[in-house]
Amino acid sequence: MASAYVAYEAYCFLQIPPSQDDSSVYFEVKPGPFYKITSALKKEGLITNSKYFTALAKYESAIKKVKTGEYELRRNMKPSEVLNILVSGIMVQHSFTIQEGLNIYEIAELLASKNLIDENEFLRLAKSPSFIQSLLGQSLPSLEGYLFPDTYRITKYQGERNILKIMVERFHEVFASLERAPTNLSRHEIVTLASIIEKETGAPHERPLISSVFQNRLRKKMRIQSDPTILYGIKEKYGYWKKNIQKKDILEKTAYNTYKIPALPKGPISNPGRESLQSVFKPEKSEYLYFVSKNDGTHYFSKTYKEHQRAVRDFQLNYKARQGKSWRDLNKKK
Predict the structure, then answer these.
(1) Residue 191, SS3?
(2) Helices 50-59 and 79-88, interaxial angle, to 10°?
(3) Could you give the CA distance from residue 170 to residue 174 in angstroms, rounded to a whole number?
(4) 134 shares a domain with 201
(5) To which H or E segment does residue 96 belong?
(6) Residue 180: count of CB within 10 angstroms of its CB
(7) Is residue 163 one of the residues assigned to a domain?
(8) Angstrom distance (rounded) from CA 228 to CA 213
(9) Domain shared by 133 and 83, yes or no
(10) Residue of 123, 157, 159 lying closest to 142 (CA atoms)
(11) Is 58 helix (H, G, I), strand (E, B) or coil?
(12) Residues of 97-108 as b/e, b for ≥16 C-beta within 10 angstroms?
């Protein structure tokens, strides 16, 4: 009688789901002995008997085949279905979007907020000389500029190294697809300039024109004088971000401050998208050397310093021109 009852109980375990509820559960298999997995499954209500589940796994020779990871299970699954998923290695994929113009610190913070990385390890690898060399074939300060802005789908157990690799591989793919034009700039200089263009404007139609201004200035041996490079230089030198630029910041020489450096900074200050990268290869043909914000997300362009000074007075020093306006107005127009 006892054996018959055990057989009936085992049959019910195998054939009757623990619940009729078909809701999904994200179940995490962590490294460790199999009994901890079965205990967690039972605690979560995904199986009704740990010993029977272990027996099933032994019968299927599956105990060593269960892979560490995060899986999507349903509460109305039979034990064999649960086991098949844990053995499959098909993990939950999380979607995240890297917007154009984010820097490595912002990307690290974003991914850490989603519990997809360890922020410190991500930044350590992003500045690791050997890792950078393996991905880009160059000795560079960091992977800044090469983490391509896009939407990615990764698993929770992808790891910092693989996530960085995926984003850099996407950069290579996009960079190779750009429409080329003759340029004296190296790849690193192209990415650096594109990263500054990305931070200077959110208006897609302006990128080729802003690229023109910077390249015109570089040809004339003029400093490109981009405010975002000041802020990035302070972060790299002192380890913190400033919200507002003061006169002393403009005067301080860092490896990124283009008010002091008569050339491009030593590396990118953000991660540029396709349009900004393309604008370096194909800038607008112009004689412009200056631009100033019109307080609505777009800019006024000038050929001479005198004209530029007048534009600064009209758009920046004139309080009425700034009142009630914001660069965010550009998004409203879209």
Answers:
(1) helix
(2) 60
(3) 6
(4) no
(5) strand 93-97
(6) 9
(7) yes
(8) 16
(9) no
(10) 123
(11) helix
(12) ebebbbbbbebb
**b/e code 27-39 from CB counts within 10 Å (16+ = b):** bebeeeebeebbe
pLDDT digit string, tens, across residues 194-237: 999 999 988 889 999 999 999 999 999 999 999 999 999 999 98
111 and 229 both lie in a single domain:
no
Q: Could you tell me if 232 and 275 lie in one domain? A: yes
d(CA 194, CA 272): 6
pLDDT for 6 equals 64
DSSP letter (8 states) at residue 138: S
Predicted structure pTM score? 0.86
Considering the domain architecture, whether residues 44 and 97 belong to the same structural domain is answered as: no
Distance CA 104, CA 120 (A): 11
| pLDDT less than 50: residues of the chain | 324-328, 332, 334
Q: What is the DSSP letter of 135?
A: H
Residue 185 domain-assigned?
A: no
Distant-in-sequence, close-in-space partners of 29: CB < 8 Å, separation ≥ 6: 37, 66, 67, 68, 69, 70, 71, 86
Q: Are residues 56 and 26 in the same domain?
A: yes
DSSP labels for 296-321?
SS-EEEESSHHHHHHHHIIIII-HHH
Amino acid 176 reads A
Measured CA to CA, the distance from residue 171 to residue 244 in angstroms comes to: 31
Amino acid at 293: S
Of 146, 177, 208, the residue at which a domain comes to its end is: 177
Amino acid at 134: S
- Alpha-carbon separation of residue 12 from 5, 7, 59, 120 (angstroms): 10, 9, 17, 49
- Looking at the structure, do residues 216 and 233 belong to the same domain, yes or no? yes
Token reading at 254: 């860092």
Q: Which domain holds residue 40?
A: 2-88
pLDDT digits (tens, 9 = 90+) for 128-138: 999 999 999 99
pLDDT of residue 287: 94
Q: Are residues 120 and 206 in the same domain?
A: no
pLDDT tens figures, 95-106: 999 999 999 999
